[in-house]
Amino acid sequence: MKPSIKYFLLIYPAFLLSGGCQKSITSQTGTVRLTFRNTVKTNPMVLGTTSYTNPFGETYKITKFKYYISNVRLGLSGLPTTAIEKESYHLVDQGLPGSLSFSFEAVENSFITLSFLIGVDSTRNVSGAQTGALDPLNDMFWTWNSGYIMAKMEGTSPQSNQVGNKIEYHIGGFSGANNVLRQIGLTFPGSKFVEIRKGKTSEIIIEADFDKWWQTPADVKIADLPVCTTPGVLSKKIADNYSDMFKVTDVVNN
Amino acid sequence: MKFKILIYLILILTGTVLLSDACKKGDGDRSSSGYHPTYLQLTIPAGWPLPPTNIFKDNPLTEEGFQLGRKLFYDGRLSKDGNFPCASCHQQFAAFATYDHQFSHGFDNSFSFRNAPAIFNLAWMKEMHWDGGISHIEVQPLAPITNISEMAETLGNVLKKLGIDSAYKRMFTAAFGDTAINSQRMLKALSQFMGSIQSYNSKYDQVKRGEASFTLAEQNGYNTFKAKCNACHTEPLFTDNSFRNNGLTLDPFLKDKGRMGITGDRVDSLKFKVPTLRNTALTFPYMHDGRRFSLLQVIEHYRSGIEVNQPTLDPLLKNRIAISNQEKVDLVEFLQSLTDNVLLKNTRLEQPR
Description:
The complex is a heterodimer of chains A (254) and B (353). Chain A is mostly beta strands and 254 residues long. Chain A has one domain. Helices cover 13% and strands 41% of the residues of chain A. Chain A is built from three helices and 17 strands. In chain A, strands 3, 4, 5, 6, 9, 10, 11, 12, 13 and 16 form a ten-stranded mixed sheet that branches. The longest helix of chain A has 18 residues. Chain A is globular and about 55 Å long. Chain B is built from twelve helices and four strands; from the N terminus they run ααββααααααβαβααα. With 353 residues, chain B is mostly helical. Chain B has two domains: 136 residues, Cytochrome Bc1 Complex, Chain D, domain 2, CATH 1.10.760; 140 residues, Orthogonal Bundle (Cytochrome Bc1 Complex, Chain D, domain 2). At the A-B interface, helix 1 of A face helix 1, helix 3, helix 4, helix 6 and helix 9 of B.
């Protein structure tokens, strides 16, 4: 009894020092990078100058295009194990090239799905002052009806009856009947895997086609609906439309 | 033998605790850099319910944070032209409401479109604004700061102005551990000040604590209050924080539908938050748009003025409220006993010098 206790006392501090301060690492991690390419149909989106035509023959220019991507995770087929990004909140802003890509560490595996929310989950909408991507300074927060604008497009159109021919679609609302949060699940082209390996970076290229905002399931004609700046029916319709705007065009495993 | 094992065990456990404490560093060990805030506690008055949520859960209340929030609350630089600090509409002598103004006066000779509510006991308030549009005390200041008929400033400009003031650099460091000045810290500091404004020392409270007694008129008024007002203006906060339509006619100019503007739901048309009656003698004019100038007028509204054919009228008011002339006068006596002079004269809440 006595010797074994003494022996234990001797090795115990060593055990604590070697392992005590490390986080438990169960497996190796690699890097995954998500890159968003905003388009209108198949053309790269250009802010300010290029004139586009929507499915109703209405022409418009885009001056702002921003949306939140949150709760990003990689998935496996039929298995509960997923790689979940911590503190996963990103504001993708066509006007800020640096915002179109972000990376995170994921556990080694061969993943076959990518999922995320368009918007900011309801918890963070009601948790007080946030920072980083969620800083209200980013002009994506409604101050009169607390909550994030999940996605925003601003521009002009000759078909708009508003001052300066403005069009503005600020899509938000996180609770109850007004919830515009949409869960997006994407697979990869050509049955490709995202191969996460230690020391390597896999890149997922995601195309976001703004043309989807106008149609399916709901028709949004500029002449009738040039502005949406509140939670409610129109916000939800546009969210339903844009929930179809993402597709993965390529996966590059380096 | 057993005693020795016990000693060994104690040694092992102590070592484990010490080492695991050492592991906690890393997440900004500020103690070595001179960050020693003085932690404060929100007062929960005896007999009160606990706040519905802990507003200081992610924002530890400290003396330094409170003092920073206090400076910000009284600083005109949070407004576009420097004339409209938070305190311009939330005056301590009016229990942090606007004294005698139906609407608050904002930037460029403008009126706000609702009556400024009194600010106290906010830890017990789940949603802010007459329509409940604000979900958390920390994001509340964003509304008046950016509203064009209130402070009319942008968040970015406010932060720029604060950033060039060395006093703020010092105070943000004292409150949060380093010199970074950002919107989150500014809002958390304001929230620490606003959340610390508490009212629980009126004559009514003293009576409840056995330190004073009501006059006959106050007691009669209290009895009437308990019978006819308490269902919505529930003690001890004197509000149940619900949204109700109290039968005011829709103002044809303002067209303010209240809660419906937030939920988009017709059942919420013309509903507004039940305001607290604490300090009510000082928070006139009354109602969301300040249309009633005296307590007698307010009581008269409930007695004879309620528009009873409104579909969303609160069921408790469908027959109006029967109140005799004597009861009316006594009610006013009682309501005056809800004035909290300790709050009004609390030097910790004054404009810092």
